[in-house]
Structures are given as structure tokens and as C-alpha cells.
Design a protein that fits this description.
Length: 135
């Protein structure tokens, strides 16, 4: 069965990626989970210091619109982490691709590199360190 996969790419303001990632992991992802959003993968892009991605899967284009309209208009998002997250973003763009389940599952497995980021964030020095973990 095919689904629609949205790949959102963020260009972050310089030196905000660690904070952006912390906000995603600690606030945005738990919220997306509560809203039953299928997050396939997320994390920093290894090609530079200021890029980040979020990949989500939807059953249909209508499901995507309905899900995003509900989530982004919710008080939980608007009164929660929205402003702190938006303050880190310089620009973003999304593409949507129809994709089969096996390929989506492959993207899920590739997204496991974010586990290193979670460990890095939980270290006592955490995001205050001058260097980020390698991907």
C-alpha cells in the first residue's frame, strides 16, 4: 500500500541546530505522537551545520491536510513550543512523494542515527558543548 511522504527541510539560523533538535525531541515529537502523526525520521542533515529534516507519512493528501490543519491550529502547538521552534528557523520547504511501505520502513531504519543525538542531548554537558556528534 502506498502512502504520501512529506519531507520537510529546514534552514536554521546559525548556531541554533542543537537547540532546535532539543525542542523537537523534548517537545514537538511527543506532541506529534499525541496527535497520531506518523513521524518516519528526523534529524540534522550532515551536509552543513544549519539544516534539519522531518519526514512524515500520511494515508492520503486529504489526511495530510486534515492532520496538519488540526495540529498547527491547536492551542497545544500555538501556546506550546511553536514560538521557540519558529525562532530557530530561517526558512523551510516541503515536498510530498507517494511511496510504498517498504521504502518508508527503510527511511525509518535510516532515521535511527538520531539515537546518537538523543544520547548527546542527555549527556551532562548536553547542547552546551561546542561540537555536535557525528552522524
Amino acid at each position: 500500500m502506498n502512502q504520501f511522504v512529506e519531507i520537510r527541510s529546514y534552514n536554521l539560523k546559525p548556531a541554533t541546530r542543537a537547540e532546535f533538535h532539543r525542542l523537537v525531541v523534548e517537545q514537538s515529537l511527543p506532541m506529534l505522537h499525541r496527535w497520531h502523526v506518523d513521524v518516519v525520521a528526523f534529524g540534522p542533515s550532515p551536509h552543513d551545520d544549519d539544516s534539519y529534516f522531518l519526514i512524515r507519512a500520511y494515508q492520503s493528501m486529504e489526511d495530510r491536510k486534515r492532520s496538519q490543519d488540526a495540529f498547527y491550529s491547536s492551542d497545544e502547538w500555538r501556546c506550546g513550543p511553536r514560538q521557540a521552534i519558529v525562532d530557530c528557523i530561517e526558512s523551510d520547504t516541503s515536498v510530498v512523494i507517494e511511496m510504498d511501505t517498504d521504502t518508508i520502513d527503510g527511511l525509518r531504519r535510516a532515521g535511527l542515527s538520531t539515537v546518537r543525538w538523543r544520547a548527546w542531548l542527555s549527556h551532562p554537558a548536553g547542547p552546551e558543548r561546542d561540537t555536535e556528534p557525528s552522524l
